[in-house]
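Posting for a labmate who doesn't have an account.
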Amino acid sequence: MKLYQSTIIFTFSLLLLLSFQSNASISDATWYVSIDVDQIENNEIYKMLEANSDKSSGDFNVEFNKLPKEISYISIYGNAQGAEDATAVIQGDFTQFSINEYVLNFLYTQDDVSKLIKEDTITYKNNEIQVLKIDEDEGKQGDKLKNAYFSQINNDLTVISFNLDEVKNWLNHDYDNHDIIQGSLFSVVVDVQSALAHMGMNIEKNNHMMQSEIFQKVSQASASVSQVNSDMVLDVALTTNDEATAIQIEQVINGLVAMSNLSGANDENELQSVVMQNLNIERNGNNILISSYASIHDLKRQALKDKNKHDNLDNQDKKVKVEVKVN
């Protein structure tokens, strides 16, 4: 599992957002990703992976428990139609904690980043908006600057965006009826009520991302990861424009699963075998619902096997070959 170092998670998010052009508002959002930081921190699988990880290897090095304790939930949304954009909505306890200051303090400790940024502030309806100006050309002639806007909306919510108008929309309380945690940016098929993380993407106008002609008829994809009792559950939903297409896609997916089972590919990995055995595919109208689960016990066992295998390979690499010649 590849994740990124938590101590630079905000910098990473910032650099991620820099790749987007900011034009759309929340009403134009075609994708979102939401992460329940509190739930992940308390999840048994996460705790085990974090405890057993080799921090120097890069295999697993996002440590959510090293995020500021005030942060409880992170959502990022944007528009993938033509020009792309993204806005991060961060929820938590901001009565005595400022994400703006946290990010700036961190950035100024990074020599390769601090020289590329400048600060400014904007006052809007008695609210302060922190402006972070990023020099993309590192001071070359014809400075190419991008502005990132940070604002604490209230004691529970902070917004980061490259679209000033989008920050103002939050400050204007235009989005008070949007419950980010419950995924109300737009309706998705999967259950998000207790998910550790969930996402949705309206891809109807972006079906070029689908290589298969039949899968180009998918209008929305959504997914969630949840812990249910002693199991970790993955739910995926595909929504099509009509029931006939849903039937076709259901048949294709069932065929691919059958081919995988016949190939014996699952025999080499116990966890993969469990997931495939627990796989359930069903259609409800024009929705195809795909779900599977594995017990926390099975996940822990596989993780320990992978770790032992990794450690054994490392030990083999460290062995010194000694050649003794006897005359």
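Reply:
Got it, the structure tokens are right above this. The first helix runs from residue 9 to 18.
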